[in-house]
Every structure is written in structure tokens, then in C-alpha cells.
Amino acid sequence: MKQPVTLRLIAYAAFALAAILITCQLTANAQASSRSTIQPSTFARVGSVDERFQSYNIEMVEVTGGRFWKPYASKTDIAPKSANQPAGLDPGLFQYRPPINLTNARLRKLAAALGPAYLRVSGTWANTTYFQDNDDAAMATPPKGFNGVLTRAEWKGVIEFSKAVDAKLVTSFATSMGTRDAAGAWTPIAAKPWVDYTKSIGGSIAAAEFMNEPNFASGGGVPQGYDAAAFGRDVTAFHSFQKQALPNMIFLGPGAVGEGTMIVPGNMKMLSSTDMLAATGPVFDVFTYHSYGAVSSRCAMLGAAATTSPDAALSEDWLDRAGKAADYYIALRDRFEPGKPIWNTETAEAACGGDRWASTFLDSFRYLNQLGSLARRNIQVNLHNTMASSDYGLLDENTYAPRPNYWAALLWHRLMGSTVLDPGSSPAPSLHLYAQCLPDKKGGVTLLAINASRDQSQTLDIASPSKRYTLTAKDLLDKTVDLNGVELALGSGDTLPELNGTITRPGSLTLAPASITFFALEKAGNASCR
Questions:
Q1: pLDDT given at position 19
Q2: Beta strands of 53-143 (E only): which ranges?
Q3: Predicted confidence (pLDDT) per residue in 418-466, tens digit
Q4: The CATH number of the domain where 508 resides is what?
Q5: Quick one: 391 and 499 in the same domain?
């Protein structure tokens, strides 16, 4: 007897539905099997970084007072032309600040929370700053051959601040015409009084570059036609002085910037690090470089190719730029200073004070991805520019209120130790994974997961229980940030919040779009972390 048409259709539909369900289950099983479980106990050790790896700059011009990069939101009148600013740039890009108050209780408390660290006092302005070796107020006009004046009181304030916040001091020396002889060669005539005073008040210079960014020496007051051979001659003279006056100081160099990236237009005059290193020979204790992925919109006159935009801030190209710059300088280190440690002594979102969004949560993706990728490359120290000035400061320069990158820095400081681990490959290109030993927890591991996708969640299967610390913002351009859904802010008396993690069981964990998560895996049992 034939089945009615209706029954046959029902049977066919049931069969089709069963086939669809089986296919879906097979697909789910395949996806699950391709997404392997992360086993923190097996993460291999790939290197280590200095305990002061995450560090910061306070520019010399902040210490002396002067015209630094004007914040975009500032209503201050355009600064008049001044000799104490980089040559050849519009004076309207700069704004006068009085000397930074290094005794401010909030500033000291927030800096100390990032200690131990290195504090670098340098920058382009340092190349032309004269040390006034008496107890008088700063002279109204710098001596011939200098553009700015550093007083004893200001430098003593730096020494006292560095001790109070557990930050070893890094600097560079004046190299302008006031430091040179009739032939244009550098002499220690200005450096010696500065060094002698530092010692007399119990200060110590842990490390120093000869000059700030010598490949752009022409912007720092050096003689006309200054070249790699002149740099080599000056480094020899400085090294001879340093061995006598500061025998325990780490000699850093060369400290160039802009090579190996797209930020320097071809028409800008720049010395080559290759030529400078060939001229100096293997003289440096630590190889150093500076790293910016772009110039800010303040310096848009350098060309569109040198700038960036918020739309590109989570792109793989942008997030990879710090690593590409590091690779360029690592290759130079291997060629000219093989076996030497390497530091990135000045870095931020963009040169020229940072873009408008350098002070927002959007830049925290670059900030933490750079720390993770440089640690993986065994870059020993990374000094952010600045602690509290212009748009790329970790703190607001007027109130010293923490910006999102400060909170990111604080979490890194508390959760990422000195031993660097390999977390394995990421399941998605937009998901960046980094791992280091968890401080003060034997066998403990911290996994940092940066989901740079603006609209796609990501999933991780983690075999160990964890404390989860997830950073998000309601808008990526917010100047505040939430930790596990609660806005981070200072409490009464500027107390820091507890920064408590959320207890999370092993298994499949979802990472929201545009989020940053630290997983503190106290019970990972990793042998490299014991």
C-alpha cells in the first residue's frame, strides 16, 4: 500500500532535519578539536626581562620648565617663538609649562606604584640644556651655545623623586655648541659640574646615552655638517670622560629613532645608525633605540604617510609596528654590538606629543601589545614617553589623574613577571597572546589576551582556574576604563583601587570584542616559574 504524500513529506523533512543536526554537530566537534586547550603548565621559557622593564620618561624640559608639545584640548594662547624648542617647527605646536612639581603627593604615589622602574630625564631639549652650578634662581638667558637652564634645585628634585618612587635614573648629556671646543669637538666642560653635583648630594646616574637621538643631531644644536664620523669622535671623548667620572654608569647607545618604520619622510635629513655604529665601534654597554609608529597630527606637515588615525589603531599593521622597529634595531645590535642587552629608551603612540586618542582606552591595545611583543624579543627595558605631559602621558598633566594607559601599566606591573613564556599560537589573527610568570606565586603564570577585533568575540579554552582581569570601555575613545565592568578610579586620599580579579573556572572562556584580559593562573604549576 502506498504512503500518503503527506507522510512521505514528513519523513523526508525529518530525514533532512536529522542530517542538518548531524552536520552541525560534526562542525561543532571539528571546531572544538581545532581549538586546543591551553595548558599553562607547559608554556616554555623563552627569555627574561629586567625587573624594571616597564619604565617611563619625564622630559628634561618638564624639569626646567619650557615649551613642550601643546595638548590638543589646551586653550592657552599660542606660544611665542623661543630658542628652547626643536628647530624648524611652528611655535604654535608648543606650550609653556612651569617646572613639574616632583613633590606632588599624587604624582609620587602613582609613580611609586609602578616601581621598581627606570626614570629617564632626557629628550631633544636635553641636548641644549645648561647646568647652572650654583644655588641661585635660573638665569634669565642661557649661556651662549645653550637654549635652556637646569638649576641645582631642579636637579636635586629629580634625584629625590627617583629615590622616593624607586626609579633608577637614566639621562643624556648636553651636546650643543656650548659644550664644544674651537674645532667643534665635544668636551666635558658642561658635563663635569653636573656629574660632580649629582655625586655631592648622594645622587646616582644609573645609565645614560651620550645625546638624545643622534641620527637627528641637526635639531639638537650640533655644528653645521655634523656627521657619523663626528659622532664617533664625540662618543670616544665622552666614553673616556665617563670611565673616569662615572665608572659604574651603564653606557647606552646609540639611541636612534625612526629607522625600520614608515614614520620618517625621505626628504628629512637623518644620520644612519649603520654609519654611526661603524664610527663608534663596539663601545656601548647596552644597545638602545627609540620607537614611534607614527608622528602625531601636530606634525602632519611631514606627510600623510607619517601619520596614523583611530580607524587604524586596532589593525595588525599598527600593532605590529613596534615589533618591526625592534627587529630592525635587533639586527643592527647583532651586527655591531653582538651579545649586548637592548633597551627601547623612548616610545609612545606617536611622536610630537601623541595623537588626540593617545590618552584614551584605544591606545591601551598598542601599549600592552608593545610590552608583550618586546618582552618576547628580549628587549630588556621599555621607557614610555611621558609620565605626565602632553597627550601621550600616562597621567593628565594638570591633575595627575590616571589615564587608561596608567591602569594598563599598573596591571602589567602587578601581573607580568620577569620570566617570559611562550603561550603557543593564537586561534585568530586579531587575538594576541603573551605569557609571563606571575610575580610572587611559585609556578604561577599570567596569560595576556588582547582581542583587537572591534566586532568579533574570541574563545579560549584554558585548563587551569584563574583570576580574570578584563579591561573594556563603553567607547574606545573614552578616557576612563572599566575593570571587570567597574570603572577604575582613585579613592579617598588618592588610594589605588584593589584591582581584584574575578575567579574563573577552567574551560571555554569568551573574550568580548575590543577587550584586554589578564588571566592570573596561580595554580598553573609551570616549572619555569618556580
A1: 44
A2: 54-57, 66-69, 94-97, 117-121, 129-132
A3: 999 999 999 999 999 999 999 999 999 999 999 999 999 999 999 999 9
A4: 2.60.40.1180
A5: no
Q: 36: which DSSP letter?
A: P
Which residues partner with 508 through β-bridges? 461
> pLDDT tens digits for 348-406?
999 999 999 999 999 999 999 999 999 999 999 999 999 999 999 999 999 999 999 99
Query: Based on the structure, what is the number of domains in the chain?
Result: 3
Question: Could you tell me if 233 and 377 lie in one domain?
Answer: yes
Last residue of a domain, one of 417, 446, 462: 417
How many of the other CB atoms lie within 10 Å of CB of 252?
Answer: 25
Do 240 and 307 belong to one domain?
Answer: yes
d(C-alpha 374, C-alpha 363), whole Å: 17
Q: Which residues of the chain have pLDDT under 50?
A: 1-34
Supply 315's cell numbers: 589593525
Query: What is the predicted pLDDT for the residue at 14?
Result: 46
Task: Check whether residue 160 and residue 258 sit in a common domain.
Answer: yes
Cα–Cα dist 207/53, whole Å: 14
Per-residue pLDDT at 13: 45
Helix (H, G, I), strand (E, B) or coil at 72: coil
What domain range includes position 475? 35-48+421-529
Task: Tell me if residue 325 falls in helix, strand or coil.
Answer: helix
Cell triple for 163: 629615590
**How is residue 487 written as a grid cell?**
570603572
Query: Which residues are CB-contacts of 397 (< 8 A; sequence separation ≥ 6)?
Result: 71, 97, 388, 389, 390
Q: Which residue has the cell 628634561?
A: 60
